[in-house]
Amino acid sequence: MEHINFLAFAMPAFFLFLFLEYKLIRRRKKPDIFNYESSVSNISIGIAERLINLFIAASFYQLYYFIYNNYRIFDIPSSVLVWFALILATDFVWYWYHRLGHEVNFFWAAHIVHHHSEEFNFTAAARITTFQAIVRTGFWCVLPFFGFHPKMVITMLIVHGAYSFFTHTQLVGKIKWLEYVFVTPSVHGVHHASDEKYLDKNYGDMFTFWDRLFRTFQEEEEKPKYGLTHPLKSYSFLWQHFHYYFEIFELWKRSVGFKAKWKAIFGSPAHMDQDIRPILEKRFLQDKSNPHQRLKFKNYLYIQLGISTLILTFFTYYFDVLNSFDKVFVLALIVLTLINCGALLEQRKWIYYLEYARLYMIATYFLYEEDLLSFFLIPLLIMIFAEQLFSLGKKYQSIILQIETSE
Ligand SMILES: [Zn+2]
Ligand SMILES: [Zn+2]
């Protein structure tokens, strides 16, 4: 029997919980907890991370084994007490990984994406990028280095990751007695807030005592305003991933002298020059049709995200038995679709060409599969003729890109 990846079940489970959260919130008549654009954008980023994770997770695990086999300091046996120690150690490493993620520009560039969302619900939990997963893996290496067996570490990371999913919701209010030990949705909600008194607080993932120990604990008092102090006004899939790296690079270019250049990369995000982002936005995001327009044909995006999720679920399940060509095709197809979804939210001018590129890619893939790759020009010619004969561009504009004016 081939390898089966049980991580595939995480996707349906995520959507089931999301559906339940959405239904309960509607019943409580708090519709502002969800926002269409923000949910689509959060889920898109989550899909990309889960997708790319398939390609790199094995190297993460190999790295843990490599460190454990060659450099471990202690020989820690497996026992109930050790599992207990590991859960504490994991959360302690997390605390510092997360805190440095907020205090060092280079790490913040990866972690900032998790904080873009101005809505706090389960979709915000999905907002993790591959860059963040890589940085996090670097920190987790401490655990096998100390002598925790990689098998235990990997199991613990799954438990730890699952826990933090459930702290991203407004369904549960404050539970004061629980907060003495555990991170609750209210505690983590404070971490996602941009209010002055809530800034740089509650870095713990499962336990609150690290925050209490290092004086970064803050309980929820007034209702938090979620999101960044300087919100990113874009749903562009690529821009959300890369904007802060560009900001660092721009700051680095402007800095004079070694110390200043060092600070541009490893200094505090609090000192980031706030003039930089608008300049970069002008340079890279200029082709936005109109910032106050929003897509009317929402189902088109839901269908794309639905299909991407479905493909990703099966892809995860069968990942180990697929050949490299199929893997690269699925990777490219889903990434293109996610870029497409982000572009649709912003009504980008080049969106129509992207649709064609995706169609052409699918056609070429099937030609290759049928050993007909020498006919690669045929689909291109059909597309050009179809465009000329039926003016598809205009139809696309009037059907798909229908807009409504937002407030
Ligand atoms: Zn954070
Ligand atoms: Zn969070």
TrEMBL record:
Keyword Transmembrane: yes
Membrane topology label: Multi-pass membrane protein
GO cellular component: endomembrane system; membrane
Start and end residues of each Fatty acid hydroxylase domain: 84-216
Keyword Transport included in the entry's annotation: no
Subcellular location: Endomembrane system
Any one GO molecular-function label of the UniProt entry: iron ion binding
Signal sequence coordinates: none
GO biological process entries: lipid biosynthetic process; membrane lipid metabolic process
Superkingdom, taxonomy of origin: Bacteria
Residue ranges of the TM segments: 6-25, 51-68, 80-97, 300-319, 325-345, 374-392
Keywords from the UniProt entry: Membrane, Oxidoreductase, Transmembrane, Transmembrane helix
PANTHER family named among the record's database cross-references: FATTY ACID HYDROXYLASE DOMAIN-CONTAINING PROTEIN, STEROL DESATURASE-RELATED PROTEIN
Protein name: Sterol desaturase
Protein species of origin: Flavobacterium hydrocarbonoxydans
